[in-house]
Amino acid sequence: MTRSRASTITRRSLLIGGIGVVAAGATAEAVNLDLLPGRSTMYRVLGLNGADGTIPDVDPVPSVSGTFVSASRNGRTVGWTIAAPASDTPLPVAVALHGYGDDHASFFGRELGWDRFLAAHIADGGAPFAIASIDGGNRYWHHRSDGDDPAAMVVDEFLPRIARRGFDTDRLALTGYSMGGFGALRLGGVLGASRVRAVSAISPALWTSAADTARGAFDDAADFRANTVLGRQRALDGVAVRVDCGNGDGFAPAVHTYVDGFDAPPAGGFEPGAHTHGYWRRLAPQQLAFLARHLGR
Q1: Domain map of the chain by residue range?
Q2: Which residue spans within the chain are E strands per DSSP?
Q3: Model confidence over 186-222: pLDDT tens digits?
Q4: How many CA within 13 A on the CB side of residue 149?
Q5: Are 275 and 249 in contact, with CB atoms under 8 Å apart?
Q6: CATH class label, 63-295
């Protein structure tokens, strides 16, 4: 009797477990198709985001850091870092724009480790270039109604400083993650192909309407309409574009809409991943290879 009861419980457990597996698969597909809310949470709970990237165990390329008082940012003192290998000739530059809540240092060291990813890239035979990052605050890399303009700071103040240090700012790329991904796409479109060779955006913070935006991302609906990159893909004509986003990222639906707006699909794509440093580290080797390829032409 006990054996029969145990067998019944086992069969019931297996049946429930099987239903659970089917339900999980169906739920994942529904979330993927945006039929259910809570995209980011559901992908995380179901373990659909893939493995985190690992910073290479190599010595980083040399870097130099400093500060200056930015007139474009209403007199704020901003920090910056340039990471680059030694070179006898001027190296091209990728200006890297950080995400919300981060700063120029977030691209390097233990957070994203791009100074080590760049060293590994070069050791594997990749073309060398410099990575230059600067503090943009949480202002979404465009002019704000209070006069703060981190985009103007990049163009009018940071790029001349990079050039004075011997780097070739005529061979320029823009890259960034989250808020910085939006900033790279927007600024790349503003400057155009005459100034920018490549734009690489990782998990860009995009919205399809002003009503959906995060608080503080834009001054108001008019500011959103003036600065959104959706509908302005042609501004990047002649610029090599790469856009990557994790399927479990809350921004993925808007990023899909943005990517679909190109006449020819940009490089990159969608794969398991969340809006996390772990995903951004996993994409770093591909991002750096893309930038190097187009900066070297």
Answers
A1: 2-36, 63-295
A2: 63-70, 76-83, 92-97, 130-134, 168-177, 198-202, 240-246, 267-271
A3: 999 999 999 999 999 999 999 999 999 999 999 999 9
A4: 12
A5: yes
A6: alpha beta
